[in-house]
Design a protein that fits this description.
about 30% strand, three-stranded antiparallel beta sheet, about 150 residues, four-stranded antiparallel beta sheet
Length: about 150
Amino acid sequence: MPVSRPFARAMRAVWFFLIGMYLISAILIYWWSQSEEGSIWYILGISFSLLIALGMTARFFFNYKVIDAQKGKIKVNKPFLMSSKTLVMSDLKEWEEQNIKTFNTEYKLLTVRFHTGFLEISNQEYDNYNKIKSFVMKYASSKEKKK
């Protein structure tokens, strides 16, 4: 019964980034309110920093998921959206693992496609990646996408 969650270090990095962006926005709003002429640069800085912060916050809340694989099913919980989806392994169409190279590292992305949806998980963001991959291979080793 492997359960996969986002790594704690990745979550801390996202939260520190968001706190920093909201702090920058608050400082710029304070400076803008204290200035007599109200420079356009303050407004642009506030808009840019709030746009990035709100976009990253929305992405975090919409994409956070806990994956629980057991008894021929993969249950995907999205606790912030209070939703849950169960993907049955008998409905699996295909799965594929990609190696993605970045500047100094390489990570793996597992994409599992079902008739009712899909699931993507990477070893860089989620723990127990290998257990989830072996669970998928156990139930559908013949359905690997041909390259």
